[in-house]
Automatic annotation (TrEMBL), chain A:
Signal peptide: none annotated. This is Ig-like SoxY domain-containing protein. Residues 58-160 form the Ig-like SoxY domain. It comes from the Bacteria. The lineage of its organism: Bacteria, Pseudomonadati, Pseudomonadota, Alphaproteobacteria, Hyphomicrobiales.
TrEMBL record, chain B:
It holds the Pfam family SoxZ. It comes from the Bacteria. This is Thiosulfate oxidation carrier complex protein SoxZ. InterPro entries: Ig-like_fold (IPR013783), Ig_E-set (IPR014756), SoxZ_dom (IPR014880). Residues 11-102 form the Sulphur oxidation protein SoxZ domain. It comes from Bosea vaviloviae. SUPFAM superfamilies: E set domains.
Length: 164, 107
């Protein structure tokens, strides 16, 4: 009997060690990733997707907040809120906000068309994400400029598990 | 009928106030591409557009693609200007449209 229990307990010990090792490695990855985020470099694929909707213009960072959870269990429904700091007057307002998921089968997810009558540039929706990736929000301002924000999301259950 | 919409917004507001409108829609948002079992694929069938009109003037448009979740939720704001109907119109792949109306009373 004891011969059955002790190997089990040994396995459990080994599993614990592997877990803590993985956790340590993950923490190391997060720490290693932080300076890269600060440098705000954009992958060529994402830059291309952004350039396509802004007709080549490079959006500035700032004035826009993309609020998404850092980790979602289910990629089928991800709560998203976008807020742009804008007075929303006839002269200065947000024309539209576009959401890009670079690794989705169709990266263009949604576009919100707003206008001065919105009063506030704040929208929320639920998104579908195929895998862990960076989600980008680009807003077009009435003055002709663009602003963008992005957020990394870890998805534990993909929205495309049936191979679509 | 697989479509249903729940619109949440205040009914009585003061003029100039910013109103938040939340729309929760029941729709499968089938992104298509799955096998139909007969050698073909299922066509995409999603709601691809939601338009909101307030007292006859368009105030908001939401273009949806396959990246929007099933049973799509959207929230947006508008400034209350006059008592009137807010008309929501969805356009589905294949040309079907659905319309819902909500009354906003401005005092």
């Amino acid at each position: 009997m004891s011969s059955v229990i002790s190997p089990r307990s040994r396995r459990s010990e080994a599993g614990h060690d592997r877990r803590s090792l993985l956790a340590g490695a993950a923490a190391g990855l997060v720490v290693a990733a932080l300076p890269a985020r600060a440098a705000t470099d954009i992958s060529p694929e994402r830059a291309q997707l952004i350039a396509r909707i802004t007709e080549g213009a490079l959006p500035e960072r700032g004035r826009i907040t993309l609020d998404v959870p850092a980790l979602v269990e289910n990629g089928n429904s991800v709560d998203t809120r976008i807020v742009v700091e804008s007075p929303m007057t006839d002269a200065d307002h947000v024309r539209w906000i576009h959401l890009i998921a670079e690794k989705n089968p169709f990266p263009d997810m949604a576009r919100f068309h707003l206008g001065p009558r919105a009063g506030r540039a704040e929208v929320a929706t639920t998104l579908r994400l195929s895998q862990s990736q960076t989600v980008t929000a680009v807003a077009a301002l009435s003055g002709g400029g663009f602003v963008m924000a992005d957020a990394d999301i870890v998805v534990t259950l993909s929205a495309c598990i049936d191979g679509g | 009928m697989s479509f249903n919409a729940r619109i949440t917004m205040p009914t009585d507001v003061r003029a100039g106030e910013i109103v938040e409108i939340k729309v929760l829609t029941r729709h499968p948002m089938d992104r298509g591409g799955q096998s139909d079992g007969r050698g073909g694929t299922v066509p995409r069938k999603i709601l691809n557009r939601l338009t909101a009109t307030y007292a006859g003037e368009p105030i908001f448009r939401f273009d949806m693609h396959t990246g929007v979740a099933a049973n799509p939720f959207v929230s947006f704001t508008t400034r209350a200007v006059a008592t009137g109907d807010i008309v929501f119109e969805w356009r589905e792949d294949g040309g079907a449209t659905y319309t819902r109306t909500a009354r906003l009373t401005v005092t």
